[in-house]
Amino acid sequence: MKDKIILPDDVLIDVRNVSMRFNLPAEKIDSLKEYFVKLLKGKLKYKDFWALNDVSFQVKRGESLALIGRNGAGKSTLLKLISGIFEPTKGQIVTRGTIAPLLKLGAGFDYNATGKENVFLNGAILGFSRKEMERKYDSIVEFSELKDFMNVPLKNYSSGMLTRLGFSIAVDVHPDILLIDEILAVGDIMFQKKCAAKIAELQKSGTTFILVTHSINKAKELCSKGVYLKKGTVAFQGDINEVTKAYLSDCNNQ
Amino acid sequence: MKLTSNAGAVEFRKSLNVLGSIVKRNVKNQYRNSFLGVVWTVLNPLLNMIVMALVFSNLFGRSLQGADYPVYLLSGNTVFNLMRMATTNALPCIVNNSDLLTKTRIRQYVFPMSNVFGATVNFFFSLVALILVMLIRIPNGVTFHWTMFMTVFPFLPALMLFSGGISLLLCIMYVYFRDIKHIYTVVLTLWMYATPLFYSLEALHLSETMMTIMQINPMYHFVTYFRDITIYGTVPSFASHAIIYGWGIGFFLIGGLIFHFGKNKMMIRL
Lengths: 254, 270
What we know:
The structure holds two protein chains of two kinds. Chain A has eight helices and nine strands. By secondary structure, chain A is of the alpha/beta class. Chain A folds into two domains: 11-98 and 215-253, P-loop containing nucleotide triphosphate hydrolases (Rossmann fold); 102-212, Rossmann fold (3-Layer(aba) Sandwich). Chain A starts with 10 loop residues before the first strand and ends with a helix. Chain B has one domain (21-267). Chain B contains eleven helices and no strands. Classes of the chains: A alpha/beta, B mainly alpha.
């Protein structure tokens, strides 16, 4: 057992020397037959892939952090580790307060069920009780602008309507930490404005954001600090302006 | 810190909440597009039983220690179907819900368990069918016994633990080996014929060794226990309780431990 780390009062997330290894078969084996054939021939090979290597940073209360970096740099893996979806291979992540991971809108939507049924199902998946959802229901419907469609099965929704519904359920949370994976560009311009206002409101009420994004503007706008990940290691961290500068100059030099 | 000491309990309560929502969704979906709706759940085992009774009653109907053949048949099927439905639905559940598992903080065990509870809901519908048949067969000598209430406890928890253990094992294996699905279908068919559902072991006049082998089958004990309390109205012995709970708790522990220690490794394969 690892020692329990007690966080100082102002630190919400402490990521300490975290590494994540994906230990996958070199060739795809997905049947027992193949497995035993390969095993007998001695051809069972595994390939180690370190998605993250010795990553450390802290996020203090009221701060917001942007994770930037190229595709495959380990940003999403890091978010999943902080959410508790994956366990780190090495190192430790300590968090304080409630965490709401918004990695995908409408994960677990049931397309045969109606909008209303899905609001409650999705709410349960995000960790809310039926009572809490009943209280939130009206404001969710109003925010999504889908009042007339709540008794229609989801399979008849347009993709824009789906993301709107997903976003409306997801933002009606008041967690201490909100983890967001590139889901902010949702819906038409009017709806995007509403989303931006909602995010600003959450930020004002003291929610800490960790944001994965490819939009430099959005990162600067929403976050005060940044971590630039490069092939699973921290290439640069600190003030958001310096981090984005480092990232951009890196990109331009390649 | 108050926050961390309660975190486990809060987590568990949330998982139960998701579990409830998913079971409800699944039961609803099962009959969403059919005209007769829930009536099918009662009708299905009934029709099945009628077909089987027509085919087998002359063959196996004589040596049942006075039990009525349709009731004997239906009671066995009801028990076996809970296990079959829970495990076959649970088998692909981790793979089918990989999106949810890698994008939200839902606990992994929620999915296999939701199938066990779903099958249990179905079991109660089948129980209605069984009671209906028993009512119809009263002129043929069928009687009701108070022991039937022992279905809810102690019988059901043992069967649910047993089905849950197998479900946990199967769904994690399926992440690695997709041919488990085909293998398990064959295993289930064999298992069904090896369990005295439409025949009785006594009627087969087996040798002593064969009899012992047939009685290793855990489903034999679950089916026999259920018939004792519904058809024959006897309170099963202490040994019968020990056997069904032994199988139930044993399998649940094995499945649970493998699932617990394998789940993090499993996640990166999704």
